[in-house]
Amino acid sequence: MAYYSFTSIAIHALISIPLLLNLSCLFHNLNLAAAAKHGRSKVYASHHHHHHRGNHNHPDPAAASDDSNPKLHLAFLALQAWKRVIYSDPYNFTSTWVGPSVCNYKGVFCAPSLDDPKIQVVAGIDLNKGDIAGFLPEELGLLSDLALIHLNSNRFCGILPQSMANLTLLYELDLSNNRFVGPFPTVVLSLPTLKYLDLRYNEFEGPLSPQLFQKKLDAIFVNNNRFTNVLPATLGGSSASVLVVANNNFGGCLPPSIVSFADTLEELLLINTNLSGCLPQEIGFLYKLRVLDVSYNKLVGPIPYSMAGLSHLEQLNLAHNSMTGIVPDGVCCLPNLANFTFSYNYFCEEEGICQNLTSKGIAFDDRRNCFPEKPYQRSQKECNATLEHPVDCFEHPCDGGFGGGAAAFAPTIAAVPAATPRSSPFSTAAPSYT
Fold first, then answer.
1. What residue spans carry the region label Disordered (predicted)?
2. Is 29 within a domain?
3. Paired strand residues for 32
């Protein structure tokens, strides 16, 4: 398994969710596309996959004329409006955006229409790594046949146009690594077929909409923004297999309603989100979890005993919190555990096999705790100051008044990797996540 380092203690993450389907197939059978979940890579592992090559032959120039194909005419109007509000294009992505033959435009991909397979429509836009500066015009809503938008690693700014609500076939939306601002863009909640949402590394702010966690999304990436307030008390209804909200400033507790993700969630990253309180026992009911990272928060109390049931768990990071008690044998014996980091806490005892994780081939880090006779531990004075005031998690349940708020967000060294572009819809090469 290949890893990216994203903390100073060698915990690694890679976000690669190969949801992208061949556009032609997607357009002919969206209901199957929505149900399809290809074998996905895990957040901490680099997974190589191949996108199927679609039928993207450019149509006859006549097909792009106003009379023969009104949809391509609308696409022409939309793309020309977009080009007019692009004020920097260092790699000349839009230099080919000339004339009515939009299927010949760089970064624009056409496919047969769902309504009439005999005509072509603009089904995808991929401007990844273009370093393009500008914003998204209202005319974007004219591209009503779009199945995917990939705008990773550009300098688009401003807010998302409300006309995006017209993109009722949109399946993937990747706006990561840009300069979008404003509150959470609720327009994305109105997209009925959306499955992949990537908003990370922008400047969105304010609370997350509770409705986000009620949509049937497969992957949710909202990390590295300026979201505040608290995680919504009700997280029910989501079908997400990956949820990454790291490096925001939510505060409050992880609500017990996280259990509503039990049937789907495989990767949960809550790094550096100012979480406090105890981890709820419900965290152990997420039986499909493979990755759990709650490092760099203000969590207290013991490791929930229910976590001994996470039989698929591979990566567990509890580092840089104020957790106490024992490191339970039930967690250390998890059959698939490969990396367990619990450094920079106040644990005082390692139970059973936890004392010798190396014998199980588990990479671990137990520094800066309160383990007697182990190297690189906290001082006795430092340990006593915390251990003399144990936390009773049953007296401080996390079930309603999710405290929160906290001081202004100050980034730490816990950083989720920069957003990596979704690959071109017709590329046969495995995408680069380096």
1. 45-66
2. no
3. none
